[in-house]
Amino acid sequence: MTYPLIVIPFVVITVVVTLATRRRPRFAARMRASALAALMLLALTAVFDNVMIAVGLFTYPEEHLSGIRIGLAPLEDFAYPLCAAFLIPAVATLLEKKPR
Asked: pTM for this one?
């Protein structure tokens, strides 16, 4: 189960950084936008990962996976777009200059 272990730090960092922005303005609106972006990215990942795996562009060694799949795509593949949808806006928010 190598791939699930690789995903854990990304998820933890995403949660910590996102929660660090909870007192910044428009947190709720940013979370709604991130959730919508995450849904779209997850849908795209489901479609394209399944197609790429089906045509043989890449494979995963079974011993490194959790065993949970969505179609042909391992569940671990869905962590990265989910993290990106929340982490990138959170980092951008933390890098914004605070108004004086």
From this structure: 0.86
